[in-house]
C-alpha cells in the first residue's frame, strides 16, 4: 500500500512535468511570434541624422533609400522610426516595418544597388535581428574581415549565417547564382 507522501510526490512530479511542457510550448509560441514580427522589419544603418529631425524627414530618407534599391514597385512601409537614444556623433539606425515579410526579402535582394548610389553608397540594409543574433552576426563580420586581410584575392560574403567565398575574377565576370534555401 502506498503512503500519502508517495501519492503527493507522484502528483507533484506530474504537475511539474506538465508545467515544464506548458512553459516550453509557451516559449516556443513566443519565439515563433517574435520571428514572424521581426521578419516584417528592415533595419537601415548609416543614414545621416539631421539635427532636430522630425518623422516626415525620416520617412523621406527611407523613401529615398528604397527608391535607390530600384525595386519596382517600391514596397510601402507601415511604420518608420529611428531606434535608440540620440547621442552626439552617432547615427541611429532606422527601423522600417512593412506589411509583409516578402517586402523585406525583396528590399534585401536589391540592397546591392545602393553601392552604385551617389547619396546612399555607405548605407547598409539588414534584417531586424535579436540582440543574440546581432552579436553572432558582428562576430561573423569580424572573422570575415580577418579573412579578407589574409586573402584579398577572394570575395567574401555571409550567407545563411556562414562565411562564404568566391574568386573575385569569376564574380566580376559572372553574376553569382543566388538560391533561396527556404524554397
Percent of sequence in beta strands: 15-25%
Number of helices: 5
Low-confidence stretches: 173-183
Give the termini distance in whole angstroms: 59 Å
Largest sheet, described in full? 4 strands, antiparallel
Number of strand segments: 6
Helix content: 40-55%
Overall SS class: alpha+beta
Question: Overall pLDDT, averaged?
Answer: 82
Q: Radius of gyration, rounded? A: 23 Å
Q: What is the global morphology?
A: extended
Could you give the order of strands across the largest sheet? Answer: 2-3-1-4
Written as H for each helix and E for each strand, in order along the chain, the element string is: HEHEEHEHEEH
Which terms summarize this structure?
alpha+beta, 4-stranded antiparallel sheet, disordered C terminus
Topology:
Blueprint lengths: L3 H36 L1 E5 L9 H14 L8 E6 L11 E5 L2 H9 L14 E4 L3 H20 L3 E6 L2 E6 H6 L10
Antiparallel strand pairs: 1-3, 1-4, 2-3, 5-6
Could you characterize the architecture of this molecule?
The chain is an alpha+beta fold and 183 residues long. It has 5 helices and 6 strands; from the N terminus they run αβαββαβαββα. The strands form 2 sheets. The chain has a 4-stranded antiparallel β-sheet. Strands 5-6 form a two-stranded antiparallel ribbon. The longest helix has 36 residues, at 4-39. The protein is extended, with a radius of gyration of 23 Å. Residues 173-183 have low confidence and may be disordered.
State the gist of this model.
The chain has helices spanning 4-39, 55-68, 101-109, 131-150, 168-173; strands at residues 41-45, 77-82, 94-98, 124-127, 154-159, 162-167. The protein has 183 residues and is of the alpha+beta class.
Amino acid at each position: 500500500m502506498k503512503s500519502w507522501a508517495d501519492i503527493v510526490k507522484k502528483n507533484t512530479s506530474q504537475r511539474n512535468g506538465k508545467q515544464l511542457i506548458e512553459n516550453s510550448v509557451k516559449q516556443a509560441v513566443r519565439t515563433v511570434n517574435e520571428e514572424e514580427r521581426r521578419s516584417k522589419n528592415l533595419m537601415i544603418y548609416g543614414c545621416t541624422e539631421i539635427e532636430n529631425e522630425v518623422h516626415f524627414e525620416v520617412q523621406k530618407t527611407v523613401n529615398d533609400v528604397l527608391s535607390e534599391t530600384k525595386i519596382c514597385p517600391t514596397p510601402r512601409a507601415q511604420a518608420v522610426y529611428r531606434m535608440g537614444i540620440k547621442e552626439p556623433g552617432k547615427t541611429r539606425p532606422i527601423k522600417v516595418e512593412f506589411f509583409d515579410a516578402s517586402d523585406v526579402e525583396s528590399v534585401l535582394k536589391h540592397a546591392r544597388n545602393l553601392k552604385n548610389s551617389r547619396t546612399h553608397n555607405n548605407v547598409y540594409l539588414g534584417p531586424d535581428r535579436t540582440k543574440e543574433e546581432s552579436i553572432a552576426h558582428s562576430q561573423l563580420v569580424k572573422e570575415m574581415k580577418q579573412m579578407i586581410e589574409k586573402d584579398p584575392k577572394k570575395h567574401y560574403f555571409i550567407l545563411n549565417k556562414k562565411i562564404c567565398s568566391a574568386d573575385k575574377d569569376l564574380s566580376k565576370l559572372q553574376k553569382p547564382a543566388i538560391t533561396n534555401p527556404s524554397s
